Amino acid sequence: MLELATIFIPTMLQEITHGIKKLELDARNVRQVVDELEKAYPGIQERLLDADEIREGLAVVVDGDVSVMGMLTKVGEQSEVHFVPAIGGGG
Question: How many CB atoms lie within 10 A of CB 22?
């Protein structure tokens, strides 16, 4: 049986997903997650990406780790993926 990654939709994007807060997708990396989200909810990609990369001010967290690989970050069959506002460092 295929295990799917769980994708958590941030509050700011739930208007696009019609209130859906999480869903399961078959994806092997963040790019595939975004592609599948766009198929299901047209318009969400432009809110997540800028020039085919994760939008500035947004971070992707996969299994509790903030992604440093961006769209290439691997997503496992039981991964949890969150799109969250990025937290900047101190000055």
Answer: 12
Q: Which CATH superfamily is domain 5-85 in?
A: Beta-grasp domain (3.10.20.30)
Contacts 24+ apart (CB under 8 A), 49-53: none
Contact 6, 24 (CB under 8 A): yes
Amino acid 82 reads H
What residues pair up with 40 in beta bridges, in sequence order?
A: none
Q: What is the helix (H) or strand (E) element at residue 34, kind and residue range?
A: helix 30-40
Q: Is residue 1 very low, low, confident or very high in pLDDT (cuts 50, 70, 90)?
A: low
pLDDT tens for 13-52 read 999 999 999 999 999 999 999 999 999 999 999 999 999 9
Using the structure block, give the residue that is written with the tokens 């769980």. Answer: 6
Domain residue spans of the chain: 5-85
